[in-house]
């Protein structure tokens, strides 16, 4: 994804030094359109969740009687309590956006219950982490073992508690709940005492495990209280293994779990601003530039199977049913917003807008509700939607937040001037200045927007209209008179005059359709009309599991992969593929047998977003290669009952990873896990269809140093050929695999465990 990055440009008498500020969600209301619909659908989902069920893990840990049994799925299998933190944020932001009193009632109730748990614990702690008191006591004593997502065999505990930190912060900042502020301060003070005995090396060891943006929330505590200890802790909780290469402008991201890194970087940016540390802020800018320009696909998402893929090879993303994760885009929006406000650089908004329309908006079912985890770019595949009673994934937590805060950057302001950043139907009420601005638009279906000014008295100030990178023939009219400007795209047109009630600004532009290649420069292309990604519905067959059940892996598609060589291809020696599109109106285009439409409109269907583009000669040659590769891949998948990709976070979590003295990594474009003690997984063998286990490695296997146990028995019928182990005679519904290293020696690096029919 390439979006031209230019310095922020003010035109007219607006000062370039005026610091950009956001309006509060209370000051901006959505009035109609696709975003207002998404907000309304999200509100229904939020109200369908039961606060007492979300609070149950916290009551359990505090030893208080339950008012309702906790939810299942991830809320009962190790990440207990994480949705509760997200729920606080969602309630607070949706209340700020809508003034719905039921939301405020629920928020106040949840905060009061959390305060009750905190009081019962007696030391400032409140959390829902399983056996939390035992876990944190081990950490306090310096007993630390783990990396990636498992810390002392507990699933991302710092990531989990970060959600509560963030939820309490949002309850205070967006909804004015003073009790949330006190609970947050108590929790922060408890955490500072928790890590006080730990060395810097031990803290950095803890930070190897996914920990969300816990550094950012301590920076927020500093902003709230102005107490230096919180800013010091924020710096202490910043992961140097990620920060230092970014400061040096070194790309060390390939193979890393994507959403583990983005929240850290948001923290680096905030701490950099608070401490005037340009190196830290520069690290955040470098990261944003790298991810947005080299690692993001057309709809703004990034990662394959949750990890950053090589910038020069997106083939694995094209092949996978686990495309970009919505949580990544949730956090890239937050980073883009922070950098826009900090740097006064309008070009961050082009990427922000791209994600907003194409990934975030599309990640919620627009009628039935439900949130998407993975958005594959594999041709002819589909997505899965969460359900309130069954699905408690991370992308549900960020999902209920995503659609509460669409008003956050439609407008922004300096001391006296307004900036119109997005074309979304909305009303701005700048009460402090006595100014109201109403925006009516049907964008992206119409290339026009109208702004109407209301003011208590005539006032001199500037209204600045963003001129997007994708817009053409951009014109601005004030009360019907054209405003002449030589403004370039990726800037603002500044209208500085004495405004009075009833003044109207009309914005008219055109947008064209273009092709955008994958960032690796391969021949796979997507159609964009302005900032809108166009895609085609290709089928409504084999949508197995499209509305998720409560299974551990319910967020993944279960339907078959359709062969990539059967995907619709663009073939034309002139390579002028855009000229083949026939406009049908309402952002729909005919492409031979397909109809292209905005991707955010496509739901409950298989789709194609990326198309291979060929000359006639190249098409014949490439199709043969693709077919051979696809035949091999699909033959293996057809024989596979279950598999674990070692070293890949969600794959290991879904298969109940446990381990000690275990490490994971990424070498030669392959993930791996090794151990000096043990690690284990559990595979599902539905109907006992799997009969053998194939284990691939990056190293040779030495039977004298490493043992393999299947269901607690030393594996028999083992054959080893070319770093591939094959174990016959599997015959159980659950297959528990345990790798044990003898004598504290390093085991081989294991790449994959695959349960096969034969």
Write the layout of secondary structure elements.
Blueprint: E1 21-22, E2 28-30, H1 33-48, H2 51-62, H3 82-98, H4 101-121, H5 132-140, E3 146-147, E4 150-151, E5 154-155, H6 157-175, H7 178-195, H8 200-206, H9 214-225, H10 228-236, H11 240-247, H12 258-275, H13 278-294, H14 315-319, H15 326-343, H16 347-360, H17 394-402, E6 411-413, E7 418-420, E8 426-430, E9 435-441, E10 448-455, E11 459-467, E12 472-478, E13 481-483, E14 491-499, E15 504-510, E16 513-517, E17 524-529, E18 532-539, E19 570-571, E20 582-585, E21 588-591, E22 594-598, E23 606-608, E24 610-614, H18 616-639, E25 640-645, H19 649-654, E26 658-667, E27 670-684, E28 692-697, E29 706-710, E30 713-714, E31 718-721, E32 724-728, E33 734-741, E34 750-756
Parallel strand pairs: 7-11, 19-24
Antiparallel strand pairs: 1-6, 2-8, 3-4, 4-5, 6-7, 8-9, 9-10, 10-15, 11-14, 12-13, 12-15, 16-17, 17-18, 17-24, 18-22, 18-23, 20-21, 21-22, 25-34, 26-27, 27-33, 28-32, 28-34, 29-30, 29-33, 31-32
Helix pairs in contact: 2-4, 3-4, 3-6, 3-17, 4-7, 6-7, 6-9, 9-10, 9-12, 11-13, 12-13, 12-15, 13-15, 15-16
Overview of the molecule:
With 758 residues, this protein is α+β, with helices and mostly antiparallel strands. Among the domains are: 31-233, no CATH class; 412-443 and 448-510, Immunoglobulin-like, CATH 2.60.40; 513-617, no CATH class; 642-756, Sandwich (Jelly Rolls). Helices cover 34% and strands 24% of the residues. It contains 19 helices and 34 strands. The strands form six sheets. Strands 16, 17, 18, 19, 20, 21, 22, 23 and 24 form a nine-stranded mixed sheet that branches. Strand 17 (524-529) and strand 18 form a beta hairpin. Helix 12 (258-275) runs antiparallel to helix 13 (278-294). It is globular and about 85 Å long. The two termini are 42 Å apart. Residues 4-17 have low confidence and may be disordered.
């Amino acid at each position: 994804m390439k979006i031209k990055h230019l310095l922020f440009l003010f035109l007219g008498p607006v000062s370039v030094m005026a610091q950009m500020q956001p309006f509060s969600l209370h000051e901006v209301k959505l009035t109609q359109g696709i975003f207002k619909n998404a907000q309304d659908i999200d509100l229904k989902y939020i109200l369908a969740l039961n606060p007492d069920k979300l609070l149950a893990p916290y009551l359990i840990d505090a030893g208080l009687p339950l008012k309702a049994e906790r939810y299942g799925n991830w809320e009962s299998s190790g990440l207990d309590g994480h949705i509760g933190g997200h729920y606080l944020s969602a309630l607070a932001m949706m209340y700020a956006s809508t003034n719905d009193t039921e939301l405020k009632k629920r928020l106040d109730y949840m905060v009061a219950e959390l305060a009750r748990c905190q009081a019962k614990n007696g030391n400032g702690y409140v959390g829902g982490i399983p056996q939390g008191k035992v876990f944190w006591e081990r950490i306090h004593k310096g007993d630390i073992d783990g990396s990636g997502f498992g810390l002392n065999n507990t699933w991302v505990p710092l990531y989990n508690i970060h959600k509560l930190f963030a939820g309490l912060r949002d309850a205070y900042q967006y909804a004015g709940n003073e009790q949330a502020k006190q609970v947050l301060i108590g929790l922060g003070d408890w955490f500072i005492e928790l890590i006080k005995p730990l060395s810097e090396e031990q803290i950095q060891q803890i930070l190897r495990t996914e920990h969300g943006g816990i550094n950012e929330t301590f920076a927020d505590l500093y902003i709230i209280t102005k107490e230096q200890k919180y800013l010091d802790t924020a710096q202490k909780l910043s992961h140097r293994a990620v920060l230092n290469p970014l400061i040096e402008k070194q790309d060390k991201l390939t193979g890393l779990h994507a959403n583990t890194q983005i929240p850290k970087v948001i923290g680096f940016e905030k701490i950099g601003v608070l401490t005037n540390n340009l190196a830290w802020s520069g690290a955040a800018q470098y990261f944003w530039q790298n991810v947005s320009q080299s690692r993001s696909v057309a709809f703004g998402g990034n990662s394959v199977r949750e990890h950053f893929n090589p910038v020069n090879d997106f083939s694995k993303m094209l092949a996978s049913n686990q495309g970009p994760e919505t949580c990544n885009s949730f956090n890239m929006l937050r980073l883009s917003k922070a950098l826009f406000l900090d740097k006064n650089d309008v070009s961050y908004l082009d990427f922000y807008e791209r994600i907003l329309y194409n990934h975030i908006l599309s990640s919620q079912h627009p009628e039935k509700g439900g949130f998407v985890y993975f958005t594959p770019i594999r041709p002819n595949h589909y997505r899965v939607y969460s359900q309130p009673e069954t699905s408690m994934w991370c992308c549900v937590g960020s999902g209920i937040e995503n659609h509460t805060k669409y008003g956050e950057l439609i407008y922004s302001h300096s001391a006296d001037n307004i900036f119109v950043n997005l074309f979304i139907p909305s009303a701005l009420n700048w009460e402090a200045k006595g100014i109201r601005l109403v925006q009516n638009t049907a964008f992206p279906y119409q290339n026009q927007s109208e702004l109407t000014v209301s003011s208590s008295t005539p006032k001199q100030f500037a209204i600045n209209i963003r001129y997007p990178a994708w817009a053409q023939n951009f014109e601005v009219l004030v009360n019907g008179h054209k405003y002449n400007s030589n403004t370039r795209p990726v800037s603002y047109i500044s209208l500085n005059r004495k405004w009075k009630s009833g003044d109207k600004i009309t914005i008219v532009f055109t947008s064209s359709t273009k092709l955008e290649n994958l960032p690796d420069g391969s021949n796979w292309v997507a159609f964009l009309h302005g900032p809108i990604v166009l895609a085609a519905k290709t089928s409504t067959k084999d949508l197995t599991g499209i509305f998720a059940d409560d299974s551990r892996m319910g967020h993944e598609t279960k339907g078959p992969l359709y062969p990539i060589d059967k995907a619709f291809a663009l073939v034309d020696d002139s390579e002028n593929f855009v000229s083949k599109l026939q406009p049908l109106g309402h952002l729909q285009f005919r492409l031979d047998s397909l109809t292209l439409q905005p991707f955010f409109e496509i739901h409950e269907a298989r789709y194609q977003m990326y198309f291979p583009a060929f000359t006639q000669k190249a098409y014949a040659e490439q199709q043969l290669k693709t077919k051979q590769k696809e035949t091999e891949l699909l033959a293996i998948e057809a024989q596979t009952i279950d598999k674990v990709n070692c070293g890949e976070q969600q794959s290991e979590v879904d298969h109940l990873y446990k381990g000690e003295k275990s490490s994971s990594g990424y070498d030669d474009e392959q993930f791996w896990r090794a151990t000096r003690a043990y690690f284990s997984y559990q595979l599902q063998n539905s109907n006992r269809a799997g009969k053998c286990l194939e284990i691939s490695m990056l190293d040779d296997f030495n039977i004298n140093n490493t043992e393999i146990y299947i269901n607690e028995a030393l594996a028999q019928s083992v054959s080893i050929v070319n770093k591939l182990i094959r174990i016959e005679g599997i015959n159980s519904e659950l297959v528990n695999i345990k790798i044990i290293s003898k004598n504290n020696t390093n085991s081989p690096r294991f790449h994959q465990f695959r349960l096969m029919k034969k």
